[in-house]
Amino acid sequence: MDSVHGDDYSTESVPLTANYEFPTLIPQVRMLSSIATERSKPDVVSITADQAIGKRRKPLTAEQVRRELNLGVGTKIVLLLFGRDEVLERVWYEGPNLLPQLGTSEYDAITGPSFSKWHPRPRPEFLYQSKRSLIVSSQLAQFGAPVIPRVDWEVERDVERWAIWANSEADLEVVSLDWTSFHSRSAWNQRFELLRKFDQLTAERLRYIINGVKAPSRLELLTELLGDERLTISCSIMGPPGSRNWGERVSEMQGRIDYAHASTSAA
Predict the structure, then answer these.
(1) Residue 222 CB contacts under 8 Å (≥ 6 apart), including other chains
(2) What is the pLDDT along the chain (267 residues), one digit of tens a residue?
(3) 223 lies in a domain?
(4) Do the domain assignments include residue 3?
(5) What's 112's DSSP letter?
């Protein structure tokens, strides 16, 4: 823990955070082919670290993504620093080179990295990975990137520590969570109840970008807790953006989210 100056979050601040109006869905795109039709062009998309960084010597800029995928000039792009461990570790160990480039790559927002926290790693490993993510968020903000810090928790004490940090950041409006790995009902429910606690401790003021949730029952729980005004779902849409059914798949996912909102509003 010495390399990250201990597990105290108060040593890091994120002075430049993303604060524009996020939609309820941000579909992920892959660098495979252009989005061919106007109907397939959403206003906001996201791209993961695997796609934007991968093994590239220089990460893709937002403009390169727009050009290669034939996105509209006004399309907002969120860079999700989620993905394979080997790619995310580049962000940390090659930070002096990569972070300035990412900071000036003109993405509309960049999330804090989702460093691996697989069980049964020791508890200090979880704290170490959380602190590393916050350090990267702070450094990206210093280089000019609008940042969405990534938060995570295993136990109530984690929630309390993150809430203290979030409440000390006066300009913080949105945080991100990467829930792609929580497939079992018990693990997901545990994270959800801790989210409820975090939201209470932060006065129910934050918006959440949650990655990897598709199941209708889980969407309903999240929508009931946060409403559509404070919940944005980011998820992969199977198939390349320009494939025949990509737009339909985006519409299907949007339909699930809209249905979840309608169901909870009517309850």
Answers:
(1) 192, 210, 213, 231, 233, 260
(2) 556 656 667 777 887 777 678 999 999 888 875 554 455 567 899 999 999 999 999 999 999 999 888 888 889 999 999 989 999 999 999 999 999 999 999 999 999 999 876 556 678 888 889 999 999 999 999 999 999 999 999 999 999 999 999 999 988 999 999 998 777 889 899 999 999 999 999 999 999 999 989 999 999 999 999 998 999 999 887 555 555 567 778 888 889 998 898 888 765
(3) yes
(4) no
(5) P
Sheet containing strand 109-111, strands side by side: 147-148, 109-111, 76-80, 44-48, 25-28, 231-236, 207-211, 174-178
CA pair distance 148, 111, nearest whole angstrom: 4
Range of the domain at 226: 11-266
- Is residue 64 one of the residues assigned to a domain? yes
Q: Which two tokens stand for residue 97?
A: 């080179």
CA angle 92, 97, 101 (to 5 degrees): 105
Q: Is residue 122 part of a domain?
A: yes
Q: Domain with 28 in it: what CATH number?
A: 3.20.20.70
Please state, in angstroms and rounded to a whole number, the distance separating the CA atoms of residues 130 and 162: 10
Count of domains observed in the chain: 1
